[in-house]
Every structure is written in C-alpha cells, then in structure tokens.
Amino acid sequence: MQDDLIEQHALALSDLERLAKALRVKDQPAEIFRAVHAVAASAIGARLFTIMSYDAWQHEVERVYTNMPAVYPLGGRKQKRGTAWSKQILQDLRPFRAETAQGIRDAFDDHAVMTAMGLGSILNIPIAYDGVCVGTMNMTHIESWYTRRHEEIGVLIGSFLAPALLNLQSARADGPTSY
C-alpha cells in the first residue's frame, strides 16, 4: 500500500492555482485527475483515491482514475440504483462519509477489500454540473479520519473535475473512448 504519511496542510490559494493550471494543459483528463489527487491527498488525506464517472441512464459509475490499479482497476463499474448512498450522492448531491469500518460495510458491496487493507473511513464527494451529478471523488483512509470540514474541502477540490468528467461522458456518447 502506498505510504500516506504526507504531512497534511490547509487548503491554500496555491492549491487552487495548481488545479486551475492543470485544467489548462494538454493530456486531459490525466493532468487534472493527477492534480486533484495530489491536492486532495495533501489537504484531506487518502490511502485509496478514485474518481468515478456517473452514467445516469444506466445508474452506473465507472472508475476513470485510481491510485491502486492492482486492487481497483480503471474501467471498473458498479451499479448504483436504489440505495441510500445513491440517493444522497447521485440525486441529492450531498457528500457521503462513513467514519468506521461498519459504516463502510453498511454502504458498499466491496467492503471486505477495503477493510482488509486497513481502511476504516470513507469520504465520497459528488461532482456536479448544472444541478446534475457527473461523477464522484472517493477517498478512503483509516477509521475516524474524515470530518465535516473534509467534506467542504472535498466539494471545492472536486469541482475542478466537472469539465473532465463531462468531456469523458460526451466522448462516450460519441463512441468508444480510450482514457
């Protein structure tokens, strides 16, 4: 597992500048995904970090970025229909936070994989544009790691993902993609 003992720091203007610059360069969406991961890991903390694109027609999320591809590979899909999690995140656009391993077990089918890696808290941030969820930014860490303040910071950082996720969805609608 990747070492996450990076010293956390408060979100700074320089972090937002880094994200804004990352949106402007070529090699998208990889550049913005990497920049968001770095800023979120530093300002919030995450052992496992993923970004999912949301297909509202299929009620399905697809993994488009991961820091642990051996465990959570790109392209992984999950159906997200009719759960409390999906209503909160995908419809109501409210972050989801579970502070314990039991909270993860209650919300996710793949809880055994996460808890086996020593992960005991999770923070899922809905990424929205024009009132619609286009994806999620997901961070998992040790038990009792995430707080309400992390949710607020996550919404700010995650907002930089909206253009990339919309572009992926547009490309998917136009035909096969490679990202």
Topology:
Elements: H1 13-24, H2 30-43, E1 48-55, E2 60-66, E3 77-79, H3 84-91, E4 96-98, H4 101-107, H5 111-116, E5 121-129, E6 132-141, H6 148-158, H7 162-174
Antiparallel strand pairs: 1-2, 1-6, 2-3, 4-5, 5-6
Helix pairs in contact: 1-2, 2-6
Organism: Paraburkholderia panacisoli
Protein name: GAF domain-containing protein
Question: In the CATH hierarchy, what is the architecture at level 2?
Answer: 2-Layer Sandwich
Strand order of the largest sheet: 3-2-1-6-5-4
- Portion in helices: 25-40%
Class per helix and strand makeup? alpha+beta
The amount of beta strand, in percent, is 15-25%
**CA-based shape:** globular
**Overall average residue pLDDT:** 91
Poorly predicted ranges (pLDDT <50, ≥5 residues)?
1-6
Count structural domains: 1
CATH superfamily: GAF domain
- Major sheet details: 6 strands, antiparallel
Protein name: GAF domain-containing protein
InterPro entries: GAF, GAF-like_dom_sf
Organism: Paraburkholderia panacisoli
Domain GAF: 28-175
Please characterize this protein's 3D structure.
With 179 residues, the chain is α+β, with helices and mostly antiparallel strands. The protein has a single domain (14-173), classed as GAF domain (Beta-Lactamase), CATH 3.30.450.40. The protein is 40% helix and 22% strand. The chain has helices at residues 13-24, 30-43, 84-91, 101-107, 111-116, 148-158, 162-174, and strands at 48-55, 60-66, 77-79, 96-98, 121-129, 132-141. The protein has a six-stranded antiparallel beta sheet with strand order 3-2-1-6-5-4, sandwiched between helices. A hairpin with a 2-residue loop joins strand 5 and strand 6 (132-141). The longest helix is centred in the N-terminal third of the chain and has 14 residues, at 30-43. Residues 28-175 form the GAF domain. InterPro entries: GAF, GAF-like_dom_sf. This is GAF domain-containing protein.
